[in-house]
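Thread amino acids onto this structure.
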């Protein structure tokens, strides 16, 4: 005996852009679902209210829909989604005013028009937020970019100071003490580059890219650049002195361990030997570097007094000449106090 063709129970709900149909059939096999001339055709073998049979129905929609229905089979039902051609609220599902007997509202998904509008706005806000996050980059992407940026910065600084350290060491072994007196002329360009680039460290700390405290970074930046650009850079008489060698050598020795340590930290690596060197070498080199900087300032005082560079006379009626060496002496006091506090 042939299976009797029956109509299943169908439940529907809508949103502004789509229709939802739930067909109460279990164990569905080979469903035939299509839309032609704005009519939904459904036919499937399954277990419904009348047992295991072939069930089918046809629905002519109230307004135009897209002819590509999407369906999903579950063990107990068939869920069909149909897209409206125009986003709007329908007063009913079918073109005929009288509701078919097998059709009923799906109260599990039912919303009235105002609730549906609120849901639509929420989805739109969620979509816009998602687009905004994608344009800004996900937190993981931003973290990766930050780590990559910091790794490259520390790598460049490491290469720069390594170049200075290696060249000064080689020149010392070849030329001996003679290499002391032309250090500035052979190493100044690279030291200028590294020290100007170190401004980035203070900026990183100030804007929160790194967790380093801002003041120590700023003090080191200003202190070194004062020695490099003012004491050495503006006075040719200072550029031929041996103290330049010791200042540059202590700076570069500290940095060839500090920057690789930061590089590995960017990629979450901990090399115990490097960590030990970074914090151990610094102990003797830091005071030696401060001493070399202080000696360079002391040696520059008579040079600035003799040349009168950066000295000035206060306006009438005071007319007192203020020598730059006065500020250098204050700088020495500040250098001692700041280094002692650190």
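Threaded sequence (342 positions):
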């Amino acid at each position: 005996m042939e299976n009797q063709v029956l109509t299943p129970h169908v439940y529907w709900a809508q949103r502004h852009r789509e229709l939802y149909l739930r067909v109460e059939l279990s164990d569905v096999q080979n469903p035939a679902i299509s839309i032609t001339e704005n009519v939904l055709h459904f036919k499937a073998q399954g277990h419904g209210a009348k047992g295991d049979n072939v069930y089918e129905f046809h629905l002519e929609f109230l307004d135009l829909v897209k002819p590509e229905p999407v369906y999903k089979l579950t063990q107990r039902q068939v869920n069909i989604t149909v897209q409206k051609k125009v986003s709007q609220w329908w007063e009913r599902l079918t073109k005929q005013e009288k509701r078919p007997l097998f059709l009923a509202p799906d109260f599990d998904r039912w919303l009235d028009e105002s609730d549906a509008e609120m849901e639509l706005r929420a989805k739109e806000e969620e979509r816009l937020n998602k687009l905004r996050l994608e344009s800004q980059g996900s937190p993981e992407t931003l973290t990766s970019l930050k780590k990559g940026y910091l790794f490259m910065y520390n790598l460049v600084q490491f290469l720069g100071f390594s170049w200075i350290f290696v060249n000064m060491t080689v020149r010392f072994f070849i030329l001996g003490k003679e290499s002391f007196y032309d250090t500035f002329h052979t190493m100044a360009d690279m030291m200028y580059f590294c020290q100007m680039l170190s401004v980035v460290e203070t900026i990183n700390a100030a804007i929160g890219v790194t967790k380093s405290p801002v003041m120590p970074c700023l003090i080191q930046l200003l202190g070194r650049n004062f020695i490099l650009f003012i004491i050495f850079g503006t006075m040719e008489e200072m550029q031929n002195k041996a103290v330049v060698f010791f200042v540059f050598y202590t700076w570069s020795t500290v940095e060839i361990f500090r920057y690789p340590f930061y590089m590995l930290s960017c990629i979450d690596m901990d090399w115990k030997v490097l960590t030990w060197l970074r914090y151990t070498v610094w102990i003797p080199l830091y005071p030696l570097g401060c001493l070399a900087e202080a000696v360079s300032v002391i040696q520059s005082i008579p040079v600035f007094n003799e040349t009168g560079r950066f000295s000035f006379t206060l306006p009438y009626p005071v007319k007192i000449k203020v020598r730059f060496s006065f500020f250098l002496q204050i700088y020495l006091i500040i250098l001692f106090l700041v280094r002692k506090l650190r």
